[in-house]
Each structure stands twice: as C-alpha cells, then as structure tokens.
Amino acid sequence: MRRVKYGGMNVAEETKMNEEEIVEETPVPEEELVPEKVAEEATEEPAEKAAPEVNPWEEKYNAEHDARLRIAAEYDNFRKRTVREKDAAYGNGKADTVAKFLPIYDNLERALNQPTEDAAFKKGVEMTMTELVKILTGLGVEIFGEPGDPFNPDLHNAVMHTEDESLGENVIAQVFQKGFKIGEKVVRFAMVQVAN
Asked: What is the pTM (predicted TM-score) of this model?
C-alpha cells in the first residue's frame, strides 16, 4: 500500500487532524501514477466495446458499393430505354416507308377495278398487285376495311352515311380506301361509308 504525504504528515496522522484544517497535496511523481492509468484504461475498455466502433474503411466501402449499384441501375435503365427507342424508330421508319407505297397500292386497285379488254394488261396489273400485297404482308402490314365489317372509329374514317335496311347498324356499306396498320399502329385509316 502506498502512503501519500499531505503537508508533511502521513495518512495515519492526517486522520487525527481536524476536518476544518486545509491540507495541501504534495505532488506525486508520474512514474507512480502510470499503473493507475493502466488500471483506468483496463476498466474503460469494456465500456468502449459496448458501443460499436465504425470502421472508416467499411464506411468508404459501403459508399462505393452504393454508388456502383446506382450506376448499374442507371445503365440498365439506359439500355432498356435505348432498346425501346430503337424499336420505336424502326417501327416508325417502317410505317413511313409503307405510307409512301400506299398511293401505288391505290392506283393498282383502281386499275384492277376498271374494265379492260386487254387480258395481258389485266394479268400484269394483278401480278403486280399480288407481289405488292405479298411484300406488305411480309413487313407485317395488315390490310383492313371490307364491306360488311363493323365500323370501328379507331380504324375507320367515316366520310359518308347511308340508310340501308339490308345492313345492320354501324356496318361498313362501301370502302373508298383500304386501311393499313402495322401491329397496333395505324398507318392509314380506312375511308368508308357507314350504314344506319
């Protein structure tokens, strides 16, 4: 046990002193205090272990990991958007090309509807029309608008109206121009006359 000196007296003598006396403490060399510091540090360690210590490297890793996940998600969104835009651009380009061929289709159809005595001419026009329809079908183009079909305002453009008891209500009586669509995209609405 260590004895601490106060004002020239040892601990035993000080207990005899009156409580009213003021005692000055003599400085203790630092070498004697080192074991106490070690004992204090040993008692503080369990308190530090109770509170989890955050590793700065782990924080940096988590931040980098989150940033990389965000970049990967942005790239995935960019890739999907690019594919959608490419498909839309291809579909729009195909629809524009088909729209440019529609006057040729209309002229061939008019030529087929005209009476002619030249069989070779008529056969040539029929073969040309058959080949054009085959090409359009190969591109995924659907031709619609036949007399007797039900009227659909999403596909047909009604330019005339007629009363005909032989036809049902909202039925196409006559087709002036065929309609064309690619998938769900309408390239040209069918121009029709609607009955009743």
From this structure: 0.59
Q: Between vectors from CA 1 to CA 9 and to CA 7, what angle results, nearest 5°?
A: 15
Q: Give Cβ neighbours of residue 154 (< 8 Å, ≥ 6 apart).
A: 186
Length of the chain: 196
Q: CB neighbours of 59 closer than 8 A, spacing ≥ 6?
A: none
pLDDT (tens, 9 = 90+) of the chain, 196 residues, equals 445 444 555 545 555 554 444 444 555 555 554 455 444 555 555 545 555 677 888 889 999 999 999 999 999 999 999 999 998 898 899 999 999 999 999 999 999 999 988 999 999 999 999 999 999 999 999 999 999 899 999 999 999 988 888 888 889 999 999 999 998 999 999 999 999 7
Under 8 Å CB-to-CB from 173, ≥6 apart: which residues? 147, 162, 164, 167, 192, 193, 194, 195
Amino acid letter for position 166: S
Q: How many CA atoms lie within 13 A of 108 on its CB side?
A: 17
Q: What letters, b where the CB count within 10 A reaches 16 and e where it falls short, cover 100-139? A: ebbeebeebeebeeeeeeeeeeeeebeeebeeeeeebeee
